[in-house]
Amino acid sequence: MASSPTARRVLVSLLLLRLLNTSLVWTFFQPDEYFQSLEPAWQAAFGPESGAYITWEWKHQLRSSLHPALFAGVYKLVDEVSSLGSFSEPLRSALLLWAPKFTQAVLAALGDFFTWRLAANLYGDDSTASTAALWMTALNPWQWYCSVRTFSNSLETTLTIAALNYWPWHIFRPAVPVKGNPKPPGAALRDSVNSLRLSLFLAAVAVLLRPTNILIWIPVFVLTLRPTLISARPTNLSAGDVLVLVREVVLCGLLALSLSLASDRLYFGFWAFPPYKWLHFNISQSLAVFYGRNPWHYYLLQGLPLLCTTLLPFVLPALYSPGPEGSSRALRVLPWTVYTTIVALSLISHKEVRFTYPLLPVLHVLGAPNVAKFFAAPSSTGTRLRHKTYLAAGLAANLLLASYLSLAHQSAPISVLSFLRSEFTRLHPPHAISTAAHPPDERLFVMFLAPCHSTPWRSHLIHPALTARALTCDPPLHTLPNTPERENYRDEADRFYDDPALFLSTELWPSSGASGSGAGGAEEPAEIPRFIVGFEGVEPWLKDFFANEGHHAGVELERVWEGWNGFFSEDWRRAGKLVVWDTGVYDNSTGV
Fold first, then answer.
1. Is beta strand 468-470 parallel, antiparallel or unpaired with respect to 446-448?
2. Cα distances (angstroms) measured from residue 14 to each of 134, 149, 400
3. Is 287 helix (H, G, I), strand (E, B) or coil?
4. pTM for the complete prediction?
5. Are 133 and 364 a contacting pair, CB within 8 Å?
6. CA-to-CA distance for 578 and 450, rounded, in angstroms?
7. For the chain, which residues make up each domain, given as ranges?
8. pLDDT, tens digit (0-9, with 9 covering 90-100), for 132-174
9. What phi and psi values does residue 142 have, to the nearest 5 degrees?
């Protein structure tokens, strides 16, 4: 492997890589990419009449506004530039669509950069291990698939690895006595106090953003204060250093907390502390289980393999014996961040791979020496590659996996919104497209009869006058844990898929004089939209309903768009193609 390039060249290369990356991610992963970041950001930027979809978490202050505040600023900037430049509506819409993606690409590149820098700090700037860490983070399929998505976990990952990079790892080096002129107490940390402050501030923001991030920092602080847990030898940490550390923790923590409180005050309109609300709802109220239950070994048997993919054989040994002989004792701290986080999160019923995403850069750094040792060998001219067959096979597997997931798997929920936007602009005059509020006579443009949050919302629909409705899946906030009412609760999407015919005829479009019979049922028929979007499995139910009970509305369903959605689906309700049906009840309807 070649020696490590300069920091500037590496950063520019990573920026170009992630900009290409975000341009080639055309698929849907999980709703939080949009509904926990871009939707509240859209509302913050353009107001409550802008058509953003605000989920129950934001209405109950479970989420920190720090993350959407970033994208709200981006939206406002694009809007101001578009106004000053008198941009056309299509150009403005394109900029609003792509600006958050490019912003996230920059954050992803910074995460890659700090992964490399931490490896360089621990192994040496010109070491093959630091170079290996750079290639690992650049070519990891999970990074390609997830790092450029606007998840709070993606921002948390960048903040975490940046904070770990700025952490004063030099205090883990053996203490060196100085004859006649001993170091004053606290000098070890005072020499790098600016780096320490930056590390603590970034860590505090990450914890406020996602409270579970504290699990990464508990072992870092404990093993920093009690180095004898990983080694019997003394370190440079003195009693004065401990005081410096405590002082900076308090100051940096208060600074981050003040920033968070001010941001939440501006967003919610009153004082709120989302980490407390998050703990209350997800732990004491046990509401997280409504989004799925997983076995205790989920992160061991699925989480780590999905994060590391082909790198897993190099990472697992590093968790047991981190670093080469004679390496820094700081490398013995990093595995404990993995142990603590995996064990703690395994005790929670609801599990997702992205909850452990902030560990991935640490895993890259730990596994880098093993990768370098296996694929690189010293030679008279420097370093040469070996085991090229295995390397080519691993790279091919990564390329195929990243390409399929980013270009094909669940691509229809993204492409269908392009179709809806184009139809809306075709059917509406410019003044209706650019208005900030819904015209009073605007009828429902599209209804999504699919599992809730199956597509992005206003961040991709863009136009505030493009009215839309979707099935909901709010948890039963009014019920108590372990009660029959909680156990038997069925949200709107559940009731639709339990019995589509019953839901259509009693809740959504009941016949004249009937009222909804289900929980939350409609007392009046819902408006018939111009388009209905759903997965093709519901088509027989829709056609049967409108043929037998909905004829009074003049509905004659016609497929006008369909999109392939991948070879498989993790949810049976999302199986098959995604389809758009024209109801035929409006003038200027379209067909194919």
1. parallel
2. 10, 16, 21
3. coil
4. 0.91
5. yes
6. 9
7. 7-176+183-407, 412-582
8. 999 999 999 999 999 999 999 999 999 999 999 999 988 876 5
9. -65, -40
Q: How far is CA 519 from CA 208, 259, 474, 479, 508, in A?
A: 36, 41, 12, 14, 12
How far apart CA 496 and CA 223 sit, in angstroms, is 52
Residues in contact with 208: Cβ distance below 8 Å, sequence separation at least 6, in sequence order: 64, 66, 256, 257, 260, 274, 275
Asked whether the beta carbons of 588 and 559 are under 8 A apart, the reply is: no
pLDDT at 24 over 50: yes
How many residues in the chain? 592
Q: Is residue 592 classed exposed, middle or buried when 0-12, 13-18 and 19+ CB atoms within 10 A define those classes?
A: exposed
Helix (H) or strand (E) holding 379: strand 376-379
Of 108, 109, 115, 150, nearest to 129 by C-alpha is: 115
DSSP state of 4: P
Could you identify the residue written with the tokens 């100085």? 178
Is the C-alpha dihedral spanning 294, 314, 235, 230 positive or negative? positive
Token digits for 588?
Answer: 């200027």
In the block, tokens 């206003």 appear at 458
The amino acid occupying position 88 is S
Q: Are 22 and 101 in contact (CB under 8 A)?
A: yes
CA distance 572 to 565: 12
Q: Cα-flanking dihedrals φ and ψ of residue 305, to 5°?
A: -60, -40
Query: Helix/strand/coil (H, E, C) string of 579-590?
Result: EEEECCCCCCCC
Q: Cβ distance 57 to 68 under 8 Å?
A: no
Q: How confident is residue 4, by pLDDT bands cut at 50, 70 and 90?
A: very low
Which residue type occupies 480? L
Distance CA(217)–CA(260), nearest Å, equals 19
Q: What is the CA radius of gyration of the chain?
A: 27
Cα(592)–Cα(579) distance, integer angstroms: 12
Q: What are phi and psi of 563, to 5 degrees?
A: -135, 130
Say whether pLDDT at 518 is over 90. Answer: no
- Sheet strands (E) in 236-335: none
Mind listing the pLDDT tens digit for each residue in 391-403? 999 999 999 999 9
Identify whether the C-beta of residue 141 lies closer than 8 Å to the C-beta of residue 97.
no
